[in-house]
Every structure is written in structure tokens, then in C-alpha cells.
Write a structure and sequence with these properties.
The protein is α+β, with helices and mostly antiparallel strands. The protein contains 5 helices and 23 strands.
Length: about 400
Amino acid sequence: MTADMNQQARLGPDHQLPAHVPARRRHTAMWVVLWSLLLVLVIVFMLVLRHREEAEKAAALARPAPGITITTLTAQKRDLGVYLDALGTVTPVYSASITSQVNGLVVAVHYEEGQLVRKGDALIDIDSRPYRAMLLQAQGALERDENLLGQAEMDLERYRSAAARNAIATQILDDQEKLVLQVKGTVKNDQGTVQFDQIQVEYCHITSPIDGRVGLRLVDPGNVVQSSGNTTLAVITQLNPITVIFTIPEDSLGPVQARLRAKAKLTVDAFDRAGQTKVASGVLLTLDNQIDTTTGTVRARSLFANQNDELFPNQFVNVRLLVNTLQGVTTIPASAIQHNGQAAFVYLIQNNIAHTRAIKPGVTDGGVTQVDGINPGDVLANSSFDKLHDNVAVVVPTEPVPASPSGGKTP
């Protein structure tokens, strides 16, 4: 077909090709023209598209970058407690494990399991008949010897009268005086025997030595108990008041002792095992008199009223001891504090620009930290820390939210 076209061009437009030129050559020329036009259109489209993309990129680079959207908070001025956290065990003030002081048969158990008893209430009775018989014998011996003493004293008075008249020898008077002293000694021995037997009879009636709650029953009527055995008849534990024993580090001993010497009542809060719910509040009672060298801690005892039995003996609790209260300090939530190695800083927001400001963190309580280096009322960033840096523009969609006492945000 190309040869026919060249030939047509040489012959001129007025000269027609012979009719014998094949029709397929004309179709081939048409397709070449169409494909050429399509290729030109594609190239033009690609050039236009590329030019448009470059124009958009240039416009984007020329357009100023939007600020980083953040949430903020406001530094507050408030009082902040200085606490020591520790692990503690609920320990009764008094706990009595009662054993038998005599041998005998248990004839009665007066208490019920879990009963609240008062000092002097009857608990257990042991058969006292053998001891009462022994007491009766001792009382009889005492009466006999008291009468012998009376007779000896009467004879002594007669001998003294006779000796005054020289009617008897002095030796007889001296012997009678010593005899009176011997009988007095016998009477005193009998009195001791009577008192001992009275105590044995009293031991047969066991009463509560303290106010408290009785545990589960450990003996029943008909059991035989021995004074030489270690069988516990009942356990009584005082519940009101009750104490919690916990440990504090020896490094914290100085501030606590200083407060105790100033007669300050240090508040102690007991929390449950998870440390989330406060169970009761009490006061620090005293510290132990020596440091445990194996742990570097000292034991402390705190007192709780426990009127509603919130605390139970041997219960494990988390303890918070209020050592001191800082008055009027600047506080922020701990979430706003950032660290660069050992240095701490915050992002101070001024005129929608973030500025790094070095701070010195102090005491932390409930997610709120006391800091030096900023002032109450300063607005700080509290989000998007991975995008922030010094002197970057920010966008604050809402007003700054002041920190709540618990360290969160006020709704």
C-alpha cells in the first residue's frame, strides 16, 4: 500500500491509480493513520496529566502547613499530700488462746461460734467436784491448826504470868513461845493450801479475759482436758479497735519520726487487696524500736476504730500513710510530663505555638504531680506528643480543660 501511495504522489493528484490496486492496501493505510493519531493523543494526555500533578505539588508546597491538633490542660494551684505506700496485715490488739489450767471433764460449753463476748462472760465449765473436795480438806486442816494456835497462845499467857511470879522455869516459857511460832507457821501453810485449792476451783469455770469474738468451737461437753496439754479450748479476738502492721523504708523514717515528735496525727488509709477501694481510715500509732537489717524497713502499727468490722484479723491490705501535706503547690497531670533522658519537660502553649519548658517534677498523688518551672494557669499540651516539637503551630479545638483533683479532666 505504501508503494501505491508513493506512486500516486509522483503521478500527481489528477492522475488516478489503476483500478487493479488492491483494496486491502487502502485499509492498511487507514489503520496506520488511526494508530498514529491515537498515539499522539495518548502522549498529549500524559503530558497534560504530568503537568497538572506538578502544578498541584507546587501549590501544596507553597500552601502553609496546618497546625497540629492537640488537647490541652491548665496547671492548677492546690494542696497535695505526701504519701508512703506499703503492704500491711490486719492484727488484733488482743488475741487470747485459752487452754485448761486443771485436769478434768468438760461439763458445759457456754459460748456459740462467732459470738461476741465481754470480759468475764462464761465460756467453759470443767468438773470442779474433785477440787472442791480438796478445798474442803484444806479448810478443815486450817480450822484445826487455827484452834491449836489459839490454845498455844493461851498457854503462853499463863506461862508468862507464872514466870512473873517465879512459879516456873524460864525454859518452859521460852519453849512455849517457840511452840506458838511453829503453830503460826502451820496455820499460814494451811491458808496457802486453801487459797491454792480455791484457785483450782475457779480454774474449772473459764471466763473470757477480753472483749471480742469467739472463733469456732474446739471442744465439746464430755471431752477430757489436761493442764499439761496444748489443747486450745477457745480463741477470742478483739475486733474493735484493731490495728494494721506495715513496713516503711528506713530512708523514709526521718520525715515520719519528725511528724511524730511534733505530736501530729498521721492518717493511714487501708485499701483492699487490689488497691482500688478504701476499706477504712485510721491513725499511725507507733513505730518499732529497730530496723530489720534483712529488708531495710521498720515496722509500724496503725490503729483503726473498725466499728463496722471492715477489717478482719490477718487480712492483707494496701496501706497509704499521709506523711505531710504540701500547701498551695503547682500541679499538673502526670500524663502531660515528657522525658528526654533524665530531663523532664512540658509543652507550653502560647498563641497557638508549642514551646518546650523544662520542669522539675516532685510529689505524685493520684496521677497528679507537683512541678516547679511553670505557673498556675499555664496551658499545656496533653496529646499528640509524637508530632510536637519546639515552636510548632498547634490547633486547640476546645478551651483548655483544667486538671481535676484525681488527675483526669473535668467534663
